[in-house]
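Running this now, will post back.
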Amino acid sequence: MNRTRVVRACSAAAAVLTLVAVTGCQDEPRPAPDTSRSRAAAPPAPSATQPAASASPDAPPSRAAPSSPASGDGRRSLVDARVAGGLHKLTGAGALRDVPVDPGEMRDGMTLVAGHYRAPGEQGPPVLFEGVDGVPEDTAVRREHLFRGMLEHLRWEPESGQPLAEPLDPGPLGGSVECLLASLGEDGDVVCGWADEGTAAVALFRGSTPAAAGKLFVRMRADLERRG
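Update: finished.
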């Protein structure tokens, strides 16, 4: 046998061995590699046209944070309370039939709360309460508007002078509380008002003093206003 025949015989034998090895592997298929671990550990990078923070089409839409007082931004809201500071809101014949004081411009998201309140068993004039929440401007300015409206409701004569509002302790709700005496005597009609983050309100107390009316007003406020 010459050298050329030896090379050809070796090549043929190698081809036969290779064919046997291949067919042997096909008789026992190997399982597919587990790629779940690598996929979880290394998520695919976003494409150039897709933002990295974009949500998957199958993901539920996210809920936007509310902009109401419940969002915890410090703003307050009013409650149409049946009992405020121990006084009961009157219904039936004693209920407030209309809005006696102009509350100012009412915009979307604002709430007007008004009512007559009286202690159980009493027969005297009720306390008139009126307030607004969701006030977009300075609430002290809105309170001044309510003060003027309450004086007009009392038919206070401008010639008698402008009653001076005196600050009082606002209590745990903070903000600013003021009361003014709409009378030429030491007692009479007292108007108290508060102003804070988003709310302004006033109340009329007949036959009282600023000190006594202010304390009752602060107690009423604790039931008529909610924080955040």
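Strands lie at 76-78, 83-84, 87-89, 111-118, 127-133, 166-168, 176-182, 188-195, 200-208, 225-227. More later if anyone needs it.
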